[in-house]
Every structure is written in C-alpha cells, then in structure tokens.
Specification:
Structural class: mainly alpha
Helix content: 55-70%
Radius of gyration: 38 Å
C-alpha cells in the first residue's frame, strides 16, 4: 500500500512514459480488462511510444470491453503481448486517432485486420483495396469496409512502414476502389440506366494526383456517352441515365448514415462549375475547353486521371484534353492569372485563421503546389517528363531537368513532406476535414509526438512548422525565377540548367516581350564570381517576379541594370536592397511603372536610398517649410545664381522622385504596405507635395536671382501668387506653375526703377528654371494676369487694385478663386489676397447675368478647346464629367455663396466641395459622385505622366502604356477595357450631377 501523500511507483512510471493524466491511467490499468497486464513493462513501453498514451490506453480498454466474450478478450490480450507488429500498429492507431478508436469499439473484430501483413500488403494498391471492399452490399457496409481499409493505412503510416507520399498514394487508391464500389452499387440499383450509357469517372485534384489526405473532398468530373454509338443512339436519354448514376454514386459516398459518411464527392471542377450539367459527352467537354475554359481550369486538368466506370471512355477523355493542358502557357497573361488566383485564395482566408492555415496560408502547401504546377505548364509542352499529377514527382522531374535548382527542390520537398505529415496527423485524429493547426496544447502535444518530437513536442513542433513554412515562403516565388540566372551564370560541373529555349519560354510566359534582351541583362548582372554578382543572384529571382507583376517587365529589368551599372561600385547600394526588404520591392515597382520615376532616378541614382522605409519613412513627402529651408541653404552655399538654381532644381528633381515613388508604391502596394484604399488620399499626397515643392523651388530661385543682382534687398517688395492648380495645392507631375507677380516699391525707390527690377527678376527666374539640363524644367505661366498675354507681366498692388476696380471681367473673378500666396514677401502676398477676396466672394453672390455668362464661357470652352480627334468621353480634363465639369460646378457655388459661408473660402476643390455639402448646397450623394470623378480624372492624368513621361489629358493608345495606366489605377493585366468602362461610368454619373447643379 502506498503511504498517504506519496505517489505509487506506477504513477511515476506512467509520467515517465508520457501520460498526462496518470491517475486516470492508473484506474484504467487497475480495471478488470487489463488486470492481468497491469505491471507488464511491455505494454507500458508500447503505450509510451504512441502519440497520446492516455488516448491509446482509453481506446484499448474500450476495444477490450467491446469484445463479445472472455475468450475473444483473452485472444486480443495474448496477441497484443506476443506480437510486437500488432502491438505497435494497434496502439499506434489508438494513440493517434480517436475516430478509428471509435470504429474499433463499434466493430470489435476489425483489430484482426492488423495482426499479420503479407509482403504485398506493405504497399497496397487499388486491387487489394477492391478486395477489401468486395463484400459491401449497401452504403452502410461500404462505410464499414472503407474504415477497415483506412485502418490498415493509418497503422502503417503511424508506425513509419510507409512515408507520407506513400500514405497519400494509398489513400488515393482506396478512394479509387471506393468510387468503383459506389458506382457498382448505383448500377446494381438501376440496371436499365447502366445499360443505356457509358460513364467514366475522372478523378481531379489530390485524388487525381495520387496524393489524397485522410479526409478530403474527392474531386471528380463525369463523362458520358450512349452505350450504342450508332446513328440511332439517343444521346439525351444516355446523358440522363449517366447523370442519374453519377448522382447516386455521389450520394452513396457523401450521405451520412449510422456509420457516418465516407467523404464528399465534389464535381464543381466540371465545365461551368455547379451551373453546368453534371455529365457531358466527350465532344462537349472538348468544345468547352477549346472555347471557354479559364487558365485555372487547365491547371486543374494537370491532375485529371480516369479512376472508375468505362476505362476506354476515360482514356479517350485524357487523350483529348491533355494536349490542351500544355498549350495553356501560350494564353495571354498566363503567369499573372495563375499568380493572381493564388493571391485571391490567400485573401479569402479569414483573418483569424491566416496564421494557423497549413494549406492555404502564406508558406503553406498550396504555395508549393502552385509553384510546381506553374513550372509544369510553362515547360511541359516541350518536356513530357514533367507530365505528372503528383506534386513531389513533378518537383523531382523539374529538378532533374534543370528547371528548378536541386538545392531549392530538396528544401522544398522536405518542407512539403513535413507540412503534409502535419496535415495527415491533424485530420487523422478525428477524421475531420481541416487544415488548421490546433491551438489547444494537448492537441499540439499529440501532434508533435506523432511526428517523432518527444522531448519538447509543443515548442519543437511550432519551431519546425515555422521553419518549414518560412522555407516555402522564401522559395515558392524564387523557384520560378532563379533558374533563369543559372541559365546565364557559371555553374558547377554536372549541375543541370535551363536550356536557352526553356529560359526564353519562361520569360515569355512572364510577359517579357524581348526575352533575348532580358537574358543579356541577367547575364550582365549575375555572371561572375564577385560579391556583387553573388548578391545580384540572390536579389534577381525576387525582382524578376515583381517586374513581371507590372505592365512592362522588360523596361523594369532594363532600368534595374542601368541603376545597378551606375551604383554597382558603391558599398551601400546592393546592401540596401539585400537587407532592406522594402527597398528592393519599392525599387522594382518604381522601375517598371513607367518613364517618369526611372528618368528622375537615372539623373541621380543615389536617390535609391530614399526607398528604404516606404511611405512611412524615406518616401514620406517633406513639408513646404523643410523644402524651403533646404533650397535657401543651397542658394547661400552657391557662388552665383546659375549654380544656386542648379542646386535648387536638383532638390526639385529628388523630391519629385520621392513623391512619384510614394505614389507608385501606394498605388501598386507591396508585401509590407497594402494598396492605399483611399485613392483621394493619394491624389492629395501628390497635389500637396508637388505644390509645396514648386513653391519652395520658386522661393529658392527668387532668392538666388535677387542675391546675384541686388544683394540682400530688392528695390521693391515682391510676391508670387499661385493660381489654378498651383494655388489650390492640386498640381500634378506635368503641371505648369500658374502664377501672378505683384510688387510694391520700397520707400524712396522710384516706381520705374522698382518696376524694372521686378520685371528683371521674373525674366531671370523663368530663364534659369528652363535652362536645358539633366533636371526637369519648371515652366512659369502668368497668362491669368489682368489683360492676359497683352497685359504687363508684373504689376504693383495699386495697379491690380485699380484694374480690378474698373476693368475686371467675370472670368478673372472666377480665376481668382484659386489665388494664394506661394513665395516672396509674405505681407505683400497677404494684402493681395485681401484685395481680391471681395471679387471672388462677392457680397450678395452673383447676379443672374453673371451666372449666365459663366455657363456660356463653360459651354464655349467645351466646344472650342477639346483637341481634334479626341474622344470626349475619355478626356480627363475637358470631357463630360471630367475635371473642368467638377471644378466649374464647385467654383460656381463658391462665387454664389462664398461671402456667407466661410468654409467655401478655400482654394482647394475637394475641401470646397465638402464645405458645400456640409452647408446643404450639394447632397451627400452628389458630393460623393463629384468627388469620385474628380479624384479618378486626376489620377488618370498623374498615371499618364508617370507612364509616358509627358503630360496628356487622355488615355494612351499604345497597349502596353494603357496597361501600365490600368495597373496604376488598380486594374490587373488584361483588364484595360474594364478601366475604360469604369472611367466612362464614373464620368457619366458626374456629368448628370453637373447638369443638375451647374446648368439647371
């Protein structure tokens, strides 16, 4: 007897053997069923070797209790102790699978299926499983026989007799035998239907690929033909009979009975999915795939395999459709389509499950399968060795052919095997379809022990899982690109590589228009044994994928080579791209998004350093005060005006690049930073940043000119007033700077002298900002001044006051709505703004005559200024629902109500529109429509400038440029038409509102 407070020796031994509830285990061992073996070390040793000793012991007791009598119970105990193979198999299953323990408790004699194995049973195939199911006469007995066969697979799996790939293949073979048995039952129930048709069952997905899970939907496609192929055959009746048989077969497998279900049979991979007929003729299948099938449907056909029904018809199906599979890579946007589908799968995972998803999450099984299938489809047309539906076999063939590096393939295979083993053991426990890693510690402990992790099973399992998932995440995209580098690099003797033709095929599939040039760039970047080349070989596989995600991967790669040639000798460049993950992706996005940003970068490649931290860091546009401070400091350091303005223009170029890069990264999105959901925020970012930069550039240039000619003080106070988009802080990349110049002679200075000085300042500023150089020019446009081009370029404040009092026209009041001080004498600028306020916000609003005049001017502008041949519906500035429509509508409200509503006294379109909505002049719905149209039209103009490198108010006609604009606006490859439709639709809605608010 054990002394009080002391644990028994049995309790201690149970703890040592891995029991988590030794008290309960002790009670079970003391029970009548195991009394004779209570102290048997063999039994405890065997229980301790299982995944869950507590579960195994409980299952064993239940199995003993279920035996029909003492003789049967003693036979089980004797065999258990005497036969180690049975002991390991039976207890292994009971410790890993609660569901199979339940099955054994219900069918107490099935343990004998595990007693002996013939050599042929070590790797069972379809024929052996068909024998095991042969006695099934109805759905219930079929389920019992299926579980008995499953028991044998699980026993050999948990004991390590078969590995994970062999287990998956046997599960697929058992599924094949089960489908055949179910179809036989359906045919026996409807012999007339069976006689009227030929029906073939084609396995798809994991069953077709010979890599099934313990619990998985079994994907199938059905093909049917009349039994009599003669001219009098009734195809309609034959298909009706085939559909009836197929439906019955699916129910036999899927429906729940007293013995549960087997697994769902899923026919949704068929043409047209669940909306299409369940059974089609072979000719109907072929016609569908030739005309209507999407890329993913050809990817699914990789695993098609006839498994049941008419073998001849199944073989005909595969022979007819397999050639189409290997033509899929020729389809437009093939690679982007496949990759987009993978991203879409990830996006559909509930947020709470992403980190636990073994199959669909990043670094999961699906990443491996997609990468392998993509490579098969690209290269399988020319290499039949790649025609395998099994992932691991295909990966081995890809490595043998040089399509994947051997080291990468080995690492990926190891990770895939581990993740599939985890998936198998998770599902085996309760025979439920799940791909989520459990959170409960007991479940994790059992899972870890089932995979051989005994010392610290929970933390060991989590570490191994994260390590293998990290390998997959790192390799699954590089897998596609890295061999392209090996094709042009010096490899070790005997190492396989892509042939030039295979490399060309892969680049074409990625969207490269000139694969020969791309290979030359790769060779120049990655060849050699230098540290620089080694780093490039690490970077390029990922960069190639990012380039391929753009509309112009050729240009992206070419630009990367130019930047690398310019910066390759600097110690920080490649280190930045290698160590700062955001920098490399940001650079790839910028270099492949069009001409403007790369052109700005090429003039000063060291600006790559800005890309390190994304919009949150180096790409965040700087404020006006900081920019002005830098430009004025650069002017102070310069020897003369030319040198000073050159420095100022250099700052402008760098900051334009910063803004363009931030805009591109926000529009494309990266791994670290998702696409900016608020498109208006991107418009405001660009408008504010470019406007602040232009103001700082003018301030620096003004200081340089004044200092060069007059020293510290100009004979007249001088201010620059921003107009148009500049005054509204809405400048785009290609906008001129619309301005007015105002001056006021200093005390004691002759007015003529002051006027000459002011005019000389303006003339010199315009000249210096347009001197040909590596930096983009800044064009100053003063045409909105009084009397337009006929009037003096610079006026005194008193001259402006006199003109506006006596001669001002309606359009000038309209234009002054955007007037705001931007550079020079701040006090003079403030007084100018106070001067024009009564003109742009007239007391009492506008007269009806003034309103009619504004409408007349707008109508004339629409008819006269639209370029000849332009499609009005796609003109972002002057077309219906474009910028002009929205701005004139908002500005009319400002002219009418600005005097009484303070919120309308603003130079910005969006802020004025919001104020009009808040004041009740525009409904919330109409305001939203106008704002959406204005933002989209502005983004179109910005996109065209980024893509083409020059300003334009219409969509480009070149297909690749149009695709690049679409990519910037959030439309994927091949969806330029959708972009144009969206623009027309948005503009049409806005025009309807404009006609109601402006012309009513």
């Amino acid at each position: 007897m054990t002394a009080p407070g002391r644990r028994s020796s049995t309790f201690t031994r149970l703890l040592r053997h891995g029991f988590t509830d030794p008290s309960a285990a002790e009670r079970l061992l003391d029970g009548a069923e195991l009394a004779s073996l209570r102290a048997d070390p063999v039994l405890l040793e065997a229980l301790g070797a299982t995944a869950d000793p507590d579960l195994a012991l409980h299952g064993l007791v239940r199995l003993l209790e279920a035996q029909p009598g003492p003789t049967a119970r003693q036979e089980l105990l004797d065999t258990l102790i005497a036969a180690k193979p049975l002991r390991d198999r039976l207890l292994g299953v009971l410790g890993a699978s609660e569901a199979l323990g339940d099955h054994l408790a219900r069918h107490a004699g099935d343990w004998q299926a595990l007693v002996t194995f013939e050599p042929r049973d070590l790797h069972r195939g379809v024929e052996e499983f068909e024998r095991g199911l042969a006695e099934a006469t109805d759905p219930v007995s079929l389920r019992v026989a299926y579980r008995r066969c499953l028991l044998s697979i699980a026993a050999r799996d948990v004991c390590g007799t078969i590995d994970v790939a062999e287990t998956a293949a046997e599960l697929a073979d058992l599924a094949t035998a089960t489908l055949r048995a179910a179809l036989a039952l359906a045919e026996a129930a409807a012999p007339e239907d069976a006689a009227r048709c030929r029906l073939a069952v084609i396995a798809m997905g994991k069953c077709g690929g010979h890599e099934l899970n313990y619990v998985s939907d079994v994907d199938v496609i059905f093909v049917g033909e009349p039994a009599d192929p003669g001219p009098d055959a009734d195809e309609t009746k034959a298909l009706r009979s085939a559909t009836s048989l197929a439906s019955h077969m699916m129910r036999i497998c899927s429906e729940t009975t007293v013995e549960g279900s087997i697994w769902p049979v899923d026919a949704n991979l068929r043409p047209e999915g669940r909306n299409g007929p369940l059974v089609r003729t072979l000719s109907s299948h072929v016609a569908y795939y030739q005309r209507w099938a999407k890329t993913w449907e050809f990817q699914a056909l990789l695993k098609a395999r006839p498994v049941a029904g008419d073998p001849g018809l199944g073989a005909e199906y595969v022979a007819a459709l397999q050639p189409l599979v290997w033509q899929a890579a020729d389809r437009e946007n093939f690679v982007p389509d496949v990759q987009k589908m993978r991203r879409r799968v990830v996006e559909t995972i509930p947020v709470a499950e992403v980190d636990r998803q073994l199959k669909l999450g990043p670094g999961g099984l699906r990443d491996v399968e997609f990468a392998v299938q993509l490579l098969q489809l690209v290269h399988g047309r020319a290499d039949t060795s790649l025609h395998s539906g099994t992932t691991l076999d295909a990966l081995e063939a890809l490595a043998a052919g040089g399509y994947v590096g051997r080291t990468d393939a080995a690492q990926l295979e190891e990770a895939y095997r581990f993740l599939r083993s985890m998936e198998h053991r998770i599902q085996l426990h309760r025979l439920r379809r799940t791909h989520l890693v459990p959170e409960d510690e007991a479940d994790l402990r059992r899972l870890g022990r089932s995979l051989g992790l005994r010392t610290d099973p929970v933390s060991g399992l989590l570490r191994a899982w994260k390590r293998h998932a990290s390998v997959v995440r790192r390799l699954h995209e590089k897998l596609f690109y890295r061999p392209l580098l090996d094709a042009v690099a010096q490899l070790a003797p005997g190492e396989a590589r892509l042939s030039p033709e295979a490399a060309r095929e892969r680049l074409v599939a990625l969207g490269y228009a000139d694969p020969a040039a791309a290979l030359r760039h790769l060779e120049a970047l990655a060849s050699g044994v230098t540290r620089k080349a080694a780093i490039q070989r690490t970077l390029l596989p990922v960069l190639l994928g990012w380039f391929a995600d753009s509309a112009d991967p050729d240009t992206g790669l070419l630009n990367f080579r130019k930047v690398s040639d310019a910066l390759g000798t600097t110690p920080w460049y490649l280190r930045l791209l290698r160590d700062e993950g955001a920098a490399a992706e940001n650079l790839a996005r910028v270099l492949s998004a069009g001409r403007l940003a790369p052109d700005l970068l090429m003039r000063a490649p060291e600006a790559v350093a800005l890309l390190g931290d994304g919009v949150a860091g180096g790409l965040r546009p700087r404020g006006r005060a900081a920019l002005e401070q830098e430009t004025l400091a650069a002017v102070r350091r310069a020897d003369d005006a030319v040198q000073a303005v050159t420095a100022v223009r250099g700052v402008r170029r760098r900051e334009l690049f910063r803004t363009a890069a931030a805009d591109i990264v926000g529009s494309y999105g990266t791994e670290a930073q998702p696409v900016e959901a608020d498109q208006g925020a991107l418009v405001d970012l660009v408008g504010g940043a470019v406007s602040d930069l232009t103001a700082a550039t003018l301030a620096g240039t003004l200081r340089a000119v004044v200092r060069d000619q007059w020293g510290d003080v100009l004979p007249t106070r001088f201010a620059i007033i921003g107009m148009g988009r500049f005054g509204g802080r809405e400048l785009g990349y290609g906008s001129d700077a619309d301005v007015l110049f105002v001056h006021e002679p200093r005390d004691g200075v002759d007015e003529r002298e002051a006027g000459d000085a002011a005019n000389k300042v303006v003339s010199e500023m315009r000249r210096l900002l347009q001197v040909p150089s590596a930096d983009p020019p800044l064009l100053i446009d003063a045409d909105l001044r009084p009397e337009g081009r006929s009037g003096p370029l610079v006026r005194t404040l008193k001259s402006y006051e006199a003109y506006y009092r006596r001669w001002s026209l309606g359009w000038e009041s309209h234009a002054l709505l955007r007037a705001g001080f931007v550079a020079g004498d701040e006090d003079l600028g403030r007084r100018f703004v106070e001067l024009v306020d009564p003109l742009r916000y007239p007391a009492g609003g506008l007269t009806e005559d003034a309103v009619r005049e504004i409408r007349r001017l707008k109508a004339r502008m629409e008819s006269e200024r639209l370029p000849r041949g332009a499609d009005p519906k796609l003109h972002a500035k002057l077309g219906p629902g474009g910028l002009s429509d929205v701005e004139w509508t908002v500005q009319l409200l400002q002219l009418r109500h600005g005097h009484e509503v303070a919120g309308l006294r603003t130079t910005g379109t969006r802020t004025a529109l919001a104020a009009a909505r808040d004041a009740g002049f525009v409904s919330a719905e109409h305001a939203e429509i106008l704002d959406e149209a204005w933002v989209l039209a502005t983004r179109v103009r910005n996109a065209v400038m980024l893509v083409r490198g020059r300003a334009q108010d219409t969509f480009p006609t070149d297909p690749r440029e149009l695709a690049a604009v679409g990519r910037y606006l959030g439309h994927g490859s091949g969806h330029a038409g959708d972009m144009l439709d969206e623009y027309r639709r948005t503009a049409r809605r806005a025009r309807t509102v404009v006609e109601e608010l402006f012309y009513a």
